[in-house]
TrEMBL record:
<feature type="compositionally biased region" description="Acidic residues">
    <location>
        <begin position="11"/>
        <end position="20"/>
    </location>
</feature>
<dbReference type="Pfam" id="PF03096">
    <property type="entry name" value="Ndr"/>
</dbReference>
<feature type="region of interest" description="Disordered">
    <location>
        <begin position="1"/>
        <end position="23"/>
    </location>
</feature>
<dbReference type="InterPro" id="IPR029058">
    <property type="entry name" value="AB_hydrolase_fold"/>
</dbReference>
<feature type="compositionally biased region" description="Basic and acidic residues">
    <location>
        <begin position="1"/>
        <end position="10"/>
    </location>
</feature>
<feature type="compositionally biased region" description="Basic and acidic residues">
    <location>
        <begin position="361"/>
        <end position="374"/>
    </location>
</feature>
<dbReference type="InterPro" id="IPR004142">
    <property type="entry name" value="NDRG"/>
</dbReference>
<protein>
    <submittedName>
        <fullName>Protein NDRG1b isoform X1</fullName>
    </submittedName>
</protein>
<feature type="compositionally biased region" description="Polar residues">
    <location>
        <begin position="375"/>
        <end position="395"/>
    </location>
</feature>
<feature type="region of interest" description="Disordered">
    <location>
        <begin position="338"/>
        <end position="395"/>
    </location>
</feature>
<comment type="similarity">
    <text>Belongs to the NDRG family.</text>
</comment>
<feature type="compositionally biased region" description="Basic residues">
    <location>
        <begin position="351"/>
        <end position="360"/>
    </location>
</feature>
Length: 395
């Protein structure tokens, strides 16, 4: 079923200036070396085209892997390298194998898709995830995705809840594109090139106007490194997405309501163009399993703008699921332990008050379950309207 081209890849995606394994036990060092420096690169054959993917490390028994999916205009390298190259991320990746998926035709050096090739819909892209996991023999995942990729993994989780233990979704938009959005994109397309349209999707107006170096770097990548014909098809597919049709469960209401079954961490920068969409998605999910993290002084790509903060949140999220119990305590957890009654900002220079996170199960009980329910009611200083009664953090 799969066109296999497995090979070991030199870690050009790692930061050579730091030693991520200093001070670790020998076995942990071995695991880290395996996870970080050895990789298998495959093109998985699916009914919707070949899917380029890279598996770093070896899946361990029943432990999930980390699965990433990028946004439009990006691939797994340009989207996630700043995050996975960060030294703080090594503590996470030495516990989990990582699989990066590139949407068809979006990988580095991709050739133009064949004439007559019908680009898969967003629903179909979510089904290719199943085949990729089967190809690698993976039973379950913790998803990490942004924008279009967040939609793909959310759709995958809705259709295959038994295969997803948790989701970290950045800039997710659960809505279908409305006719006004469609018209705006059409008008924008008449006046601007494809790279400009993608830039306006990835970054907010403030960032575009003020951060010329960052925008210039990504504009150069989108223009010179991405296959423009393939990118246009991916953008068209994303703009044709259906509504996820998720609905917040109501106590005493329909128990079969369509919603994510796994814990979810929704992340958005406070100046991201996706703020409204993420807040809307949060209002439609189960508040006992969903946490909204709105990052202060952060733009459209938190994993690029503030990777250390995002890693801190991801580590805390994974610990809440019962994994990485031996990992060093994060600043967030230390602050909570010291105060006994609040969860402070991930940034030591800012402090915001939040109520206690209820944890009624022991670590062994947590491991016996697929996850731990997360409950973090936002306080009066939260960036999200408390009337939604959702879990929210602000940092």
């Amino acid at each position: 079923m799969a066109e296999r081209a497995p090979r070991n890849i030199e870690s050009d995606e790692m930061n050579d200036e730091t030693d991520p394994f200093e001070g670790y036990p020998i076995q942990s060092l071995r695991d880290a070396v395996q996870n970080q420096f050895l990789a298998r690169e495959d093109n998985v054959e699916t009914p919707f085209g070949k899917v380029h993917c890279i598996m770093r490390g070896t899946p361990k028994g029943n432990r999930p892997i980390l699965l990433t999916y990028h946004d439009i205009g990006l691939n797994h390298k340009t989207c996630f390298n700043p995050l996975f190259n960060h030294e703080d991320m090594h503590e996470i990746t030495r516990h989990f194998a990582v699989c990066h998926i590139d949407a068809p035709g979006q990988q580095e050096g991709a050739s133009t898709l064949a004439t007559g090739f019908t680009y898969p819909s967003m629903d179909q892209l979510s089904e290719t995830v199943t085949l990729v996991l089967k190809h690698f023999g993976v039973k379950s995942v913790i998803g990490l995705a942004i924008g279009a990729g967040a939609y793909v993994l959310a759709r995958f989780a809705l259709n295959h809840p038994d295969m997803v233990e948790g989701l970290v979704l950045i800039n997710i938009n659960a809505q279908a594109e409305g006719w006004m959005d469609w018209a705006a994109h059409k008008i924008t397309g008449w006046a601007h090139a494809l790279p400009d349209m993608v830039i306006s999707h990835l970054f907010g107006k403030e960032e575009i106007h003020n951060n010329h170096d960052l925008i210039g770097t990504f504009r150069h990548h989108i223009t010179n490194d991405m296959n423009q014909a393939n990118l246009q098809q991916f953008v068209k597919s994303y703009n044709s997405r259906r509504d996820l049709e998720v609905e917040r469960p109501v106590p005493g209401g329909n128990v079969n309501v369509r919603t994510l079954k796994c814990p979810a961490l929704l992340v958005v920068g406070d100046s991201s163009p996706a703020v409204d969409a993420v807040v809307d998605c949060n209002s439609r999910l189960n508040p006992t399993k969903t946490t909204l993290l709105k990052m202060a002084d952060c733009g459209g790509l938190p994993q690029v703008d503030q990777p250390a903060k995002l890693i801190e949140a991801i580590k805390y999220f994974i610990q809440g699921m019962g994994y990485m119990s031996s990992a060093s305590m994060t600043r967030l957890v230390r602050s909570r332990t010291a105060s006994g009654s609040s969860i402070s900002s991930l940034d030591g220079n800012r402090s915001r008050s939040h109520s206690n996170r209820s944890r009624s199960h022991t670590a062994e009980e947590q491991r016996g379950r697929s996850h731990t329910d997360v409950s973090m009611e936002s306080a009066s200083h939260s960036s999200v309207d408390n009337t939604t009664k959702s879990n929210a953090l602000s940092c």
